[in-house]
Amino acid sequence: MGLDTRAALRRCGSALLALVTSTGLLATDAASADGTPAKELFGARALPTVAAPTSYGFYSKGCLSGGIAIPTDGPTWQAMRLSRNRRWGHPEMIALIERFSHDAAAKIGWPGLLLGDISQPRGGPMLSGHASHQIGLDADIWLTPMPQKTLSYQERESISATSMLDKSKFLTIDRSVWTPSHARLIMLAASYPEVERVFVNPAIKKKLCDTWRGDRAALGKVRPIYGHDYHFHIRIKCPAGSQGCKDQAAVPAGDGCDKSLAWWFTDAPWAKPKKKPGEKPPKPKFATLSDLPKACTLVLNGPAPASEQQATFGTAYRAPAAIPAAATSIEAVIGAAAETPLAEIPVPLPRPALQ
Ligand SMILES: [Zn+2]
Can you provide one Gene Ontology molecular function annotated for this UniProt record (predicted)? Predict the structure, then answer.
């Protein structure tokens, strides 16, 4: 069978799957037999599976049912890169982002969050970008504060985030862009009990190690990693009720300002892997549906809401009537973060039409 024929058959298979899904029929493992990369299958789903909210598998190998989307606009956030359709998550993740954005404004004066990728409607691997973000429990938050104005669809596609690094030096914070508010924002994110890790660039972690005078245990959740100088990444624990969700090992005790951080400032993490003469680079291996938890086949092929209007959106969080005055100390910021109540009644916010 020629390549073209195979590609045509594959396209045909995808169309069939889409049809099966749109009619609400459940194709059991129709897609698992062929070797289509799972990222193509999950990347093609525009809406979530209607089912109980459940995260299946691990952050970097799994999927999500019953996902909800964060509204594109809230009082203290704007979602970016709307064309990617990655503002879906487990309802607990969406609630956390909404609450965090409100707390950041009320307690540290951060004018609002610009939201990067959360997950695809059904989670799963993505065609571009991340290894994780597959189960609706990871979210990227820009380190650029939200502007006063409502950004247009086009601006949300094109505006760039700001790096916190001085690119003329090795792993060094750019003092002209980094502020104590950035430190407070990251540490506020780390202060929530459900937040298990916050990923940042090693230079940012070092800056926090050197300057943070608040809770050092929360600092231990802030983990150095490649990139993450334009945004930071919040990861929450497996929610209760997600039996198929695989928890990550707890972070080691302590603030993490130790050898594990010092390693990033050596040559080791940046050295190019040595190649033997004549050795070919390894072929990239893409996960197929059969590499993911079994439930992900059902999630992929499960029924979607009839339209985007019928999909479920966030805003279960409602700001308290009285917004507390800006906190006067970092300890107050961290202490108060656990106290703001979650409202029970979801209040949908208007979503601007895509232009
Ligand atoms: Zn991320």
Answer: metallopeptidase activity
pLDDT at 9 over 90: no
Q: How many domains does the chain have?
A: 1
Task: Classify residue 342: in a domain, yes or no.
Answer: no
Cα–Cα dist 324/340, whole Å = 10
Q: Ligand 1 centre and the CA of 8: distance in Å?
A: 34
Instruction: Calculate how far, in angstroms, residue 233's C-alpha sits from the geometric centre of ligand 1.
Output: 5
Is residue 174 in a domain? yes
In this predicted structure, what is the pLDDT of residue 325?
42
- Looking at the domain assignment, is residue 72 inside a domain? yes
Residue with tokens 């203290």: 76
> Per-residue pLDDT tens for 68-93?
999 999 999 999 999 999 999 999 99
CB 21 within 8 A of CB 306: no
Q: How far is the CA of 93 from the centre of ligand 1 (A)?
A: 13
Is 273 a member of any domain?
Answer: no
Instruction: Specify the CATH number for the domain of residue 96.
Output: 3.30.1380.10
Ligand 1 center from residue 84 Cα (angstroms):
14
DSSP 93-125: HHHHHHHHHHHHHHHH----EEE---B-TT---
pLDDT at 342 over 70: no
Q: Which residues contact 32 (CB under 8 A, 6 or more apart)?
A: 288, 289, 290, 297
**What pLDDT band is residue 151 in, cutting at 50, 70 and 90?**
very high
